[in-house]
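Give me the fold.
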Amino acid sequence: MRIFGRVRQRPSTDWRLATNRAFTLIDDGRYEDADALLTRAADLEPWLSESWFNLALLHKFRHDWEQARSAGLRAVALLEKDAGAPDWWNVGIAATALQDWPLARRAWQAWGLPVPGASSVADEPLGMELGGAAVRLSPEGEAEVVWGHRLDPARIEVRNIPLPSSGRRWGEVVLHDGVPRGERTTVLDGGSAVFPVFDEIELWAPSAVPTWVVLIEAASEEDRDALERLAADAGYAAEDWSSSVRLLCRSCSESRMPSEEGDGLAQHDPHDHSVPGRPGPLGHTGAGTRWSPERECGIAAPSGLVRGLLDGWVADRPDARAWRDLEEVC
């Protein structure tokens, strides 16, 4: 852990010892013990913005958003120069978690981001339209990187259909951290585009749309694409996991990895299933040069619609399409 240094004078030895020990405990997941030490450090040096920044950071790790907001506001009140300070980013995340939209706007503006409609819709959620990005779901477990649409600096709407092991669904909005861990590159309009990968902090808004897994027989890629278009036209999603999911080790997942041609939101930009120390449970790899008709697909659709979607897809080309083994998995 790095402690940001912006001190007016050198803090005491006791402050530095308590703070250094606290971050060692945080790295070990011992948040309660770290809280006691960082609280002591803040009592020793209450004038120091780092004292409150560190407490806000700890409360963010614990998802204690009321405390994170309170400590973060004390930190920014002590800043000598607040523009672009990381203290404001932590305040913005806490405010977003609490749906404190006036404070979120203030935080992102203080960080240096343009916030549209800041005065006229201060009590409504931000709509900053920051484009595509990737988010790592369950970063401490069976991590999966999926594509999404950034609603503001701390929220991403998931646009892939996550694997069931993630516990996440298509269309959910997740709160994410501010520092990217990894990047994905993709071809966009003939050039190369780079998208950051952010770590999920927690689920912000759940989706009521269940995830299904189904085995399909598709004679060609065009047949597979027809199912995905049919689901999209109905306002939902289908995704060929057999070609859209690839396995990566943790180190590769957190580095810059190439994607496929697309816009960072397309179904066939790969998303990644990376588990520390072992391969993922499904064993998918990227699409090869030879087409295999049997595909494992994820579908995000209501229970009253999913079978009708599949039957309608088959009815258009019954000699080239079939489905079986439909199961709700998340």
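Residues 211-328 form a domain with the Alpha-Beta Plaits fold (CATH 3.30.70).
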